[in-house]
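User: Design a sequence. Structure:
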């Protein structure tokens, strides 16, 4: 499972792989995965009630061998599952030592309870999926930081280039050139990096920057 998931750490891929592996290895008919706060293209991230939500909120396993006995507890959920032909469910939290990121529900058409061995296997698969989801989240976080850093560096390079060009063109020092650009950016309600880019690309009339400021 790990090899196939790590090729593409998107959350939908993780959920797809987790669901297919559980259906292949466990005596169940289907699965539902609950991942609040995660944008999924092919899976619902909403659970208004039911074992999956309870497992997520408590961080504990929730097993119901006969859903018909839980109508008063989860009326909407029981009706929805009955409409799909499911009679039993076992839910496991997707968790690490200090964080629960979601849950998975194992659905069965018959009123059954998973054996100890089956629950152990389900827990192992859920643990692998949880690690993949957390790695994907960390990777997305670092990619965002990297993009922000690169943007800041690119802006700084353009500003330095513009300072040099403006200083040479007007016969002023670099500090004065920078202050002229900054003053113009503020007065025109523009970003300093955009003003600098205009200087470098020649799309901004530098006479506007060099014009003596009114006192």
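Assistant: Done.
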């Amino acid at each position: 499972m790990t090899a196939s998931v790590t090729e593409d750490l998107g959350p939908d891929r993780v959920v797809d792989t987790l669901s297919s592996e559980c259906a292949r290895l466990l005596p169940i008919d289907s699965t539902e995965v609950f991942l609040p706060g995660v944008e999924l293209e092919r899976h619902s991230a909403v659970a208004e009630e039911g074992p999956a939500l309870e497992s997520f909120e408590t961080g504990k396993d929730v097993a119901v061998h006969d859903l018909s006995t839980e109508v008063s507890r989860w009326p909407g959920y029981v009706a929805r599952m009955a409409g799909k032909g499911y009679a039993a469910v076992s839910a496991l939290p997707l968790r690490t030592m200090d964080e629960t990121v979601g849950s998975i529900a194992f659905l069965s058409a018959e009123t059954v309870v998973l054996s100890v061995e089956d629950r152990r296997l389900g827990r192992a698969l859920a643990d692998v999926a949880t690690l993949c989801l957390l790695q994907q989240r960390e990777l997305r976080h670092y990619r965002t930081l990297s993009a922000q850093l690169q943007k800041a560096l690119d802006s700084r390079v353009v500003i330095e280039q513009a300072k040099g060009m403006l200083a040479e063109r007007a016969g002023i020092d670099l500090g004065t050139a920078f202050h002229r650009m900054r003053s113009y950016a503020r007065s025109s309600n523009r970003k300093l990096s955009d003003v600098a880019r205009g200087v470098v690309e020649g799309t901004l009339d530098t006479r506007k920057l060099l014009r003596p400021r009114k006192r």
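Residues 1-7 have pLDDT under 50 and may be disordered. The chain has two domains: 2-143, 152-210.
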